[in-house]
Design a protein that fits this description.
- The structure is a single chain.
- The chain contains 5 helices and 8 strands.
- The chain is α+β, with helices and mostly antiparallel strands.
- It has a 3-stranded antiparallel sheet with strand order 1-2-3, with no helix packed on it. It has a 3-stranded antiparallel sheet with strand order 4-7-8, with helices on one face. The protein has a two-stranded parallel ribbon with strand order 5-6.
- Helix 3 links the parallel strand 5 and strand 6.
- Helix 2 runs parallel beside helix 3.
- It comes from Teladorsagia circumcincta (Brown stomach worm).
- This is Phosphoglycerate mutase family protein.
């Protein structure tokens, strides 16, 4: 019997093709991941420096604090970062510290999905670098946060050319549209509630407070462990 394992281009699951000795048609099985890691992006620049864009309107970007990046990550005017800011220097360090904890405990991702926002792409790229993950980053537009946070319109996301430096898989076909799923700090909490032994449903009030109680870089590891005859899902918090 020959077994060939392939990652499907769009599915995010492992496809196992088995061919019997009799030469019959191959049978395909979908093997879903045993570990899912849900992580919030790290510290964003506009949260700590809300006026950084206005201070750089009439001249090229220049940092005025040690926590600000020396240069902007993609080539575009500071005004184009409105609603889609980069992460701070501390945010980059935090992402790499968490990734080091993932790597040291053998939680290396095989696939990485993230929101199209720059702060999420930067966080994902830092994790990819430190954990030595070989898979490119897959951008899912539906993981972006609620449109209610943008009454003046959605931000201008990085173009494929601008995000090429982050090893984004531009051949990947997203599963969701931008308006289909809402992702934010709540994603970590909802994932925990969904896979808990006793499922819980978050209220609107819960969702409003999640971005306060769930810190930047929060990481949740969901691991399915085979026990007896059933597969049970345990929630593990990774200490770094």
């Amino acid at each position: 019997m020959t077994i060939k394992n392939l990652y499907t281009q769009n599915g995010g699951q492992l496809q196992c093709i088995t061919m019997g000795a009799g030469g019959g048609k191959p049978r395909q099985y979908k093997i879903y991941p045993n570990v899912i890691m849900v992580m919030r992006h790290t510290e964003r620049l506009d949260e700590f420096f809300p006026d950084w864009i206005s201070k750089n309107v009439n001249h090229p970007y220049k940092p005025y604090d040690l926590n600000m990046p020396m240069a902007l990550p993609v080539q575009r005017p500071p005004q184009a970062y409105q609603g889609d800011p980069p992460i701070t220097n501390t945010g980059d360090i935090l992402a790499r510290l968490i990734a080091r904890g993932m790597y040291s405990t053998a939680y290396v991702p095989d696939l990485i999905y993230c929101s199209p926002s720059l702060r999420c792409i930067q966080t994902a790229y830092a994790v990819k670098q430190v954990t030595k993950c070989k898979a490119p980053i897959r951008v899912e537009p539906g993981l972006f946060e609620s449109f209610n946070n943008y009454p003046m319109g959605l931000p201008e996301f990085a173009t494929p050319q601008q995000r090429a430096q982050f090893n984004v898989d531009e051949n990947y076909t997203p599963h969701t549209k931008l308006e289909d799923i809402v992702g934010h700090a709540q994603t970590v909490d909802i994932a925990a509630g969904t896979f808990a032994k006793k499922q819980r449903h978050s209220t609107e009030v819960d969702l409003c407070w999640d971005q306060v109680k769930i810190p930047y870089g929060a990481l949740l590891v969901l691991e399915r462990i085979e026990a007896a005859q059933k597969l049970r899902i345990f929630i593990r918090h990774l200490n770094v």
